[in-house]
Design a protein that fits this description.
The structure is a homotetramer. By secondary structure, the first copy, chain A, is α+β, with helices and mostly antiparallel strands. Chain A is about 25% helix and about 35% strand. Chain A has a single domain, classed as Thiol Ester Dehydrase, Chain A (Roll). Chain A contains 4 helices and 5 strands, in the order E-H-H-H-H-E-E-E-E. Strand 2 of chain A pairs antiparallel with strand 2 of chain B.
């Protein structure tokens, strides 16, 4: 149940988590967070808007990134320190999103790794881009 | 149903959204995102860890920030461009978190605002800190 | 799978449905309906208020009444026509609520029954009171 | 975080809350309330019935009315006293429902307001009609 330690990580290591985003994912996310923006829960209004339909919360995709770090790379025991997020394209209901994290830097002295984090849809379009800083679990 | 336009926003404007984070919030968030890290859903393991109990996902607090932007400031019609997040303290089940966004810069020519975004717990401790960049709705 | 027809119903017939109202019931109800009133989801604020803590939505208790009509009396096939609701006392998290419906009038010609509908907590206090009008399933 | 007081309310004031009702809304509502009537959760049975498909619980629409009162008019601090509900048309999965509350009477001496409350679908058809009585928050 413990993730990888610094010694078990190297630059270029990566992991992914893929999910098709459902209406119920978005509706539950709206309910949990209170983000009931019409773009997410009002089909009539959203169809008039620039995305021609309801879209998922950007932060839901960010949650998939969090899943990669918390479950796989480095995995359980990781301390999530910071994250940058650029929302580069909308996620529609039914889109299949792949969150990917890849180690791009290791600071062995301070026990910190930097990961490039992206979410990509089924067409290969990047919908979320950024970097994470995390402390891998100790020995 | 439309949020505030650039002309209706000024530096210093702020809005808040407060929620007591429940076990069910964290469990649903885990289910939606797939972040089933034991820190969030395994009480036995979590009690042995550094936070002495299960904690909420950092990205759940980030979702409360998203709610402030999407619902209030600027509100519906906003395009969320980017967000930086520093996870500065754990959120325990039952903590009451206030997400706050405050306008700190306006770029009228490009229709972009920068907001300082924080989440604070019931004791006044900052648990999440960062900045958001967003495009307010047009006239 | 069909409920009772008019011929199978008489004045005085009643049915009940009991549930202990959990935090997760209230939180999901808030998320579904968008009623994120601090009285329901903000423990700090609610403790300062007149009920000394978070309370359930009145309409959640009304949902338990709906369950009695839809599941038992008259049951599947019923057309729910109207309902009056008096919210007479708060429902706290952890309260055990019994919804009860009792037939108080039958209009055979128009196939309509009137039911007295109440919700009572574990201390016997009525928290919701009213009347329902419904059309039982046909033969 | 406080709603409008009597002094801030006048006859004709109104507020709205719109949501596209999803299958997950109805399923969660069914789970919370225990109203597992086949009309809501059994597509095979419901398609044989008079509405030609599964429909939402009438009380779910009533929950949207509750959201308008609790969040906007009068808003936080309101005491919800009573509500009448006429279920005038079915709500199908995917319907976009607008709950609206409008102040139609003020009793300043007793600090009570009466609101006309309706839910309308995307085609403009009224699906729920009634009146609410509420006490606005005090100064």
């Amino acid at each position: 149940m413990k993730g990888r330690t610094m010694a078990e990580l190297k630059v270029g290591d990566f992991a992914e988590h893929t999910k098709t985003i459902s209406e119920s994912d978005v509706y539950l996310f709206a309910g949990i967070t209170g983000d009931l923006n019409p773009a997410h829960i009002n089909a009539v209004e959203a169809e008039k808007g620039m995305f021609k339909g309801r879209i998922a919360h950007g932060m839901l995709s960010a949650g998939l990134v969090s899943a990669v770090l918390g479950m796989q790379l480095p995995g359980p025991g990781t301390i999530y320190m910071s994250q940058t997020l650029k929302f580069t394209a909308p996620v529609k209901f039914g889109d299949t999103i792949t969150a990917r994290a890849e180690v791009i830097d290791r600071n062995v002295d301070r026990n910190r790794i930097t990961l490039k984090t992206t979410c990509t849809n089924q067409a290969g379009k990047v919908v979320l881009d950024g970097e994470a800083l995390a402390m891998p679990p100790k020995e």
